[in-house]
Specification:
Layout: E1 2-7, E2 10-12, E3 18-26, E4 33-39, E5 46-52, E6 57-59, E7 67-72, E8 77-82, E9 91-98, E10 102-104, E11 108-112
């Protein structure tokens, strides 16, 4: 049984920064891909960024140059550094983990507003 614990998120002004973290714990972990998806009000869940165990990174076009994803394979953690935040980044951000199956975190709200 794999558990995901998310931290970070909150309210920030436009142009500000936030950092999201997600830690996976449990037995027989064989994590392939970790990352973050987000869901804005009234919209479908979409990719923000993912990183494979080999370090291959994928960013949504809308966050390229502003968000940075990183991962610690030994600790099974993934972080998302979000800079130059915009109001349209407001969403619930979900940690995503793919092993032999897919797991989702409970979600953490990021609100970008003045």
């Amino acid at each position: 049984q794999v558990q995901l614990v998310e931290s970070g998120g909150g309210l920030v002004q436009p142009g500000g920064s936030l950092r999201l973290s997600c830690a996976a714990s449990g037995s027989n972990l064989d994590i392939r891909t970790m990352g973050w998806y987000r869901q804005a009000p009234g919209k479908e869940r979409e990719l923000a960024a993912t990183i494979t165990d080999g370090g291959r990174i994928n960013y949504a076009d809308s966050v390229k140059g502003r968000f940075t994803i990183s991962r610690d394979n030994a600790k099974n953690t993934v972080n998302l550094q979000m800079n130059s935040l915009k109001p349209e980044d407001t969403a619930v951000y979900y940690c995503y983990v793919r092993t032999y199956y897919i797991l989702w975190g409970q979600g953490t709200l990021v609100t970008v507003s003045s």
